[in-house]
């Protein structure tokens, strides 16, 4: 297969939660493959923008809080106006709340579901309306090991990421014939702010490392190749797939 299958030159991508962690890793990887990137988040992604400019691509900062669906349509129109189109959406922004199921609060339920699932759906809807008009596009949702497994003390996170898996397949079913590929990446244990508490917990850290066949935490850069693949022509016949990038965790 020629490298041109993975070439994103001339493409425009939106990446949510792009100031840090997995979102930053994916945004930079897409830019290295040739795409211009709209960096969406409640914190400006200046560091990510610098890395994108360093590889000669454009970066547009879009300040938006995805704890509600209110900014979704504006994100899509701003990205289009600033960068001249929309080909790729990466729904990466996400949060986690930890507590025993017996003590889990409604606020910890709603905040995680609203950000991780509800905004993901309505931003995808806004983007898909444009992609349908333009003849197609790629949507990549960031799922989790807890799309497949139950986890512990993270009730709303498990519910939201299991929902992301279901929605990825539903949207693929509805939009494949409209030229839109909807797929997901399920990261394993990746060293970011999201997992800082786990990394700091000596016992849990040792348990996690002992179960990962690759014997290390993943790095945000480990997700870049999967994101480029699912954004590219190489994935034109890939629909509704949830690609684990997990150091072998699910195979164990
Ligand atoms: P992270 O470093 O905490 O990054 C989360 C990103 O989401 C940040 O940019 C954050 O912005 C943004 N975000 C959170 N709430 C938002 C809101 N209301 N509006 C806009 N942006 C918001 O964590 P990460 O590990 O890179 O997580 C990225 C995605 O990967 C999440 O969906 C997470 O569930 C998923 N994931 C992570 C792992 C892992 O092991 N790390 C594994 C599986 C799945 P701020 O910086 O402003 O908070």
UniProtKB/TrEMBL annotation:
PANTHER family the UniProt entry points to: 2-DEHYDRO-3-DEOXY-D-GLUCONATE 5-DEHYDROGENASE, SHORT-CHAIN DEHYDROGENASES/REDUCTASES FAMILY MEMBER
InterPro entries: 2-deoxy-D-gluc_3_DH, NAD(P)-bd_dom_sf, Sc_DH/Rdtase_CS, SDR_fam
Name of the protein in its database record: 2-dehydro-3-deoxy-D-gluconate 5-dehydrogenase KduD
Top-rank lineage group of the source organism: Bacteria
EC supergroup of this enzyme: oxidoreductase
Record EC number: 1.1.1.127
Family label: Belongs to the short-chain dehydrogenases/reductases (SDR) family.
Keywords: Oxidoreductase
Organism, as annotated: Parasphingorhabdus cellanae
Keyword Oxidoreductase in annotation: yes
A Pfam family of this chain: adh_short_C2
Gene responsible for this protein: kduD
Keyword Oxidoreductase among UniProt keywords: yes
One function term, GO molecular function aspect: 2-dehydro-3-deoxy-D-gluconate 5-dehydrogenase activity
